Amino acid sequence: MRVRFAPSPTGALHIGGARTALYNWLMARHAGGTFVLRVEDTDRERSTPENVGQILDALRWLELDFDEGPILQSERAERHAEVLRTLEEGGHTYHSTATAQDVRAYKDRHGAEWGFRGEPEADGAIRLRVPEGATVVHDLIRGDTTFAHEHLDDPVIARADGSVLYNFAVAVDDLDAAITHVVRGEDHLSNTPKQLLVLAALGADQPAYAHLPLLHGPDGKKLSKRHGAASVQELRERGFLPEAVRNYLALLGWGDTDDETIVSTDDLVRRFTVERVSRNPARFDVDKLRWMNGRYLRELGEEELTRRLEAYTGRDGLRPSVVIAQEKIQTLADFWPLAGFLHDGPADDPSARERWLDEEGRAALAEVREALATLDAFDAPSVEAALRGVVERRGVKAKQVFQPVRVAIAGTTVSPGIWESLAVLGRDEALSRIDGALGQAVRIA
RNA sequence: GCCCCCAUGGUCUAGCGGUCAUGACGCCGCCCUUUCACGGCGGAGAUCGUCGGUUCGAAUCCGACUGGGGGUACCA
After folding, report:
1. Active site includes A399?
2. Which residue among A60, A181, A216, A436 has the highest number of C-beta atoms inside a 10 angstrom radius?
3. What are the tens digits of pLDDT across the range A46-90?
């Protein structure tokens, strides 16, 4: 099996493209085949080297390694010209100066359902002669789809200057790369007969096809940069893990008879078959990805999670705070807002201070300060015992004591466990923050 | 307009002629509990887009319609 991923570098790699890449990669790894990367950069206006770099970057981050390529379509111009000549010599093409308007006029005359047939001219663009009959696309996901040739326009396969167009180039490139399975988005289904016609004119065998349903945004509209985390780049910035993204994307449009939702990449490779890909378009649901990402995050283990968090935040010495914060975050991006106070001091949340550092709260806080100052060991169990002692002595609800302490050291009402946090801070820092809160609160009051 | 694809709770998905229609996210409740989470338990939520047909029996097969999507470029 030889499959390929053939993005056009007209922007960042979006999750739709990422999923297509993933499915191709899974197929190749499942079958022990070859995964080829080809860059379709023949769009002279929109393709840029920076975009090519972005795509390679995205694939690297997703850990979808390719075995051959990247093949640049733009570097195959000579070969394309050669094949074009073969087609001309075989009488499969003709020159035509007919424009889009001419095609429309033709349909006005003959009926909208009839494909355009031009008259051969001395020069102009090159059109492929569509023969009589029909072309059947045998799709691994959708079954057979028949396209009657009479509805198909004679497609332009090369410009007047000889530069070739997409439907011609893909066919030739897939043929030359000996691609056995063409797996791509459903937006290509309607163009497949044109490519099949090129192959037929060349007398070549056709590869197997599989057209994946398209991905939509959360609002059901087409996915774009405007809607949610649409690009791979953005997913990375928002703190998602590549392994979670692979799992999520694999299940977005593919299902097993098995009910498992968390499926490791190894298992995906083992179980994935393109025949089981769904025919329905799917919506990208960030909430489900977040949930899944949290699952993966916690499975990483403290050491590895710390490594990733340090790489993500660019900070060192995070291990202790990672340990106490890990069960409360779903993405790498969630970490700092939750646990940053352990490193950079309390956050500033006036409404939290107002709510918890009132007279009552300050009194509790002062008593906590006493208890903590005289503690022998300053570890989580000891701190907990001390705080609970204060609760008991004051005869109040636990939160009447704990929340003021939380606000004092974190600045907000949301944080990791309170005694774990105190222990991570250490006695000196903890007392100093409590003192700070007491002083500050007094000034406010 | 023309050609093509698709249709199971809000979202993803199982189902392949006979099930109380599966599981997950999300949502609600309870438990756990120092906040928020995590975890556990339970719940609400689907006339299987509509209509017709085939059949003793249709989510499952056929057709029409409706809705959504894609293509229709000298873009990819």
Report:
1. no
2. A181
3. 778 888 999 999 999 999 999 998 999 989 999 999 999 999 999
Q: Which bases of strand B sit closer than 7 A to a protein CB?
A: 1-8, 10-15, 22-26, 34-39, 68-76
A197-213 pLDDT, tens digit per residue, is: 999 999 999 999 999 99
Q: Is the CB of A415 under 7 A from strand B?
A: yes
Residue A391 included in any domain: yes
- Does the CB of A103 sit below 7 A from strand B? yes
Nucleotide nearest to A125 (CA to C1'): B74
Q: Which nucleotide is nearest to A126 (CA to C1')?
A: B74
**Pick from A181, A215, A249: which residue ends a domain?**
A215
Q: Is residue A291 part of a domain?
A: no
Asked if strand B comes closer than 7 Å to A233 Cβ, the answer is no
Structural domain including A360 reads: 340-444
Beta carbon of A147 within 7 Å of strand B?
Answer: yes
- CA of A440, C1' of B47: distance in angstroms: 63
Identified catalytic residue from A221, A222, A225, A397: A225
Q: What is the SS3 assignment for chain A? A: CEEEECCCCCCCCEHHHHHHHHHHHHHHHHHCCEEEEEECCCCCCCCCHHHHHHHHHHHHHHCCCCCEEEEEHHHHHHHHHHHHHHHHHCCCEEEECCCHHHHHHHHHHHCCCCCCCCCCECCCEEEECCCCCEEEEEECCCEEEEEEHHHCCCCEEECCCCCECHHHHHHHHHHHCCCCEEEEEHHHHHHHHHHHHHHHHHCCCCCEEEEECCEECCCCCECCCCCCCCEHHHHHHCCCCHHHHHHHHHHCCECCCCCCCCCCHHHHHHHCCHHHECCCCEECCHHHHHHHHHHHHHHCCHHHHHHHHHHHHCCCCCHHHHHHHHHHCCCHHHHHHHHCHHHHCCCCCHHHHHHHCCHHHHHHHHHHHHHHHCCCCCCHHHHHHHHHHHHHHHCCCHHHHHHHHHHHHHCCCCCCCHHHHHHHHCHHHHHHHHHHHHHHHHHHC
Domain boundary (A196, A215, A234) is at A215
Has residue A381 got a pLDDT over 50?
A: yes
Asked if the model's pLDDT at residue A10 lies above 60, the reply is yes
**Would the Cβ of A436 be found within 7 angstroms of any atom in strand B?**
no
